[in-house]
Write a structure and sequence with these properties.
about 475 residues; alpha+beta; 4 domains; 19 helices; 10 strands
């Protein structure tokens, strides 16, 4: 049996301006210029010429500024701001791209100097293209042979692929083309002068690699009949080698080749107080192409339905541009308000960058100070950076949970991590501190923490266990 009835529901629908603002708040400054360019390129009614491209010709038809456009709803406010998609900030460090030599291109150039047949060159070039960003060939030779056949239609065999891989392994940077870390390090030692230290280092890597990675130094000295000084000299050769030869040369326009562009700048004013600013970003002027302005004017007096439809289309596109510019303004205000709240909350830290002065702070703390929703604060913090007089930091760096010390005072987990790092840095490397011993050290400094907490923070800091920290 069907029943009919009325039901009242309360729903919230975001306006186009709100949607655009949310997207732009998440956008870091190095992507903002491209976002403006995309908006203008996709809006046919807007003037898409750069001001420097325009000619001062009195007879040339001029596009119409937004303040000249009027409709039945009254004047549309002017947005007298300039389009400049590559930025015009006085600070040179805000240029975003840094292009470096291509890793693959460098290897292919070296391959060109080898006396290879066209078939051999194709196989070797395929191998170079199969290397990862660190310069390693992570796939087994059999799989490479299959890939050559099925993906490149090149017939080869394991013997030929291995022979050509050996050629690539002679290229610069030394160690390129290795299939694992041990082979990478051995390839680099192969090019060194044959001193006793180098020979011992090769023997350690070739015959005692597991003992080396496990830092079983006493076992290595016993089996190789080495003194402590001889082992120390051999290990010194190894630790100076490069475990990531491909990282020396970045692919052009790769993410690694881009500089970090700060969204905020913090200085200390003459009175000794933190002063926050944002790099100036030139906003676009909403300027309408002449032919679309005429469509709007003609529609006011025309009785043609098609003219009215065209005018509605143009008006929608103008509104879209206005919303975008207003969203840019709101982005600036939201980011500035949020970052100022962070600076105020961490005032003492921003004076000199002393990590021990970082107070416990979570997103909710800043949301309460600004009146913004936690999700808004999270969007502001995401992928944004601040330049200070003591370094450049992601905004997430300043957030951490808290715990109480022995005096009942709340301290930041980042402060505890710094004390933990200092304790490990100052330990006797012949007898590194175990996690249980680190608990006692921290407790003597006023921090009461459990062993599992020490182990967790040590892992987060990328610090290995005591046995793996042992040095000669």
């Amino acid at each position: 049996m069907l029943k009919q009835g009325l039901e009242i529901k309360q729903t919230q629908k975001l306006s186009p301006l709100q949607i655009t603002t949310i997207k732009l708040i998440e956008t870091p400054i190095q992507e903002l210029a491209q976002a403006v360019k995309n908006e203008w390129d996709n809006n046919p009614v807007l003037d898409d010429e750069h001001p420097s491209d325009k000619k001062d010709d009195e007879d040339q038809p001029k596009d119409v500024s937004i303040e000249e456009i009027k409709d039945d709803r009254g004047d549309i406010p002017a947005y007298k701001l300039k389009v400049n998609n590559w930025g015009k900030d006085a600070r040179p460090e805000y240029d975003t791209f840094s292009v470096k030599e291509s890793f693959t291109g460098s290897l292919l150039e070296q391959l060109g100097f080898r006396n290879l047949s066209p078939h051999e060159y194709e196989v070797a070039a395929f191998l170079i293209g199969s290397l990862d960003g660190d310069g390693y060939l992570r796939r087994d030779i059999e799989s490479v042979v299959d890939d050559l056949a099925f993906r490149a239609n090149i017939s080869s065999d394991e013997e030929e692929v291995l022979r050509l891989l050996k050629i690539i392994q002679e290229f610069e940077p030394a160690g390129v083309g290795a299939r694992d870390l041990r082979e990478c390090l051995l390839l680099q030692l192969k090019g060194c002068a044959r001193t006793e230290d180098v020979v011992n280092a090769e023997t350690i890597l070739r015959d005692y690699y597991q003992d080396f990675t496990g830092k079983h130094f006493q076992r290595i000295m016993s089996r190789m009949s080495l003194s402590k000084e001889e082992l120390r000299a051999a290990l010194a050769k190894i630790v100076r080698l490069n475990p990531s030869p491909g990282g020396q040369i970045d692919d052009s326009y790769s993410d690694q080749a881009q500089q970090i562009v700060p969204d905020f700048v913090l200085d200390i004013d003459p009175g000794g107080e933190p002063r926050l600013s944002m790099p100036r970003f030139p906003l676009p002027e909403v300027k309408i192409k002449r032919k679309y302005a005429e469509i709007l004017e003609e529609a006011k007096t025309s009785k043609d339905p098609k003219a009215k439809e065209a005018a509605v289309f143009v008006k929608q596109k103008i509104d879209s541009a206005k919303w975008f510019v207003e969203a840019l303004r709101q982005r600036h205000n939201t980011l500035m308000t949020t970052m100022q709240a962070i600076v105020d909350f961490q005032h003492d830290y921003f004076l000199d960058g002393d990590e021990t002065k970082l107070k416990p702070m979570v997103l909710k703390d800043i949301a309460e100070k600004t009146g913004f929703d936690i999700s808004t604060v999270s969007r502001v913090v995401s992928s944004k950076y601040i330049e200070t007089h003591f370094g450049i930091f992601p905004l997430k760096y300043f957030f951490s949970e808290g715990l109480e010390n022995q005096d009942g005072e709340e301290v930041s987990t980042r402060e505890l991590k710094k004390v933990l790092q200092q304790s490990i840095d100052n330990e006797d490397k012949d007898n590194p501190l175990t996690d249980d011993q680190l608990v006692s050290v921290l407790e003597s400094k006023g921090y009461k923490v459990a062993r599992r907490t020490v182990a967790k923070y040590r892992d987060q800091l990328g610090i290995p266990t005591a046995r793996l920290r042992k040095e000669l």
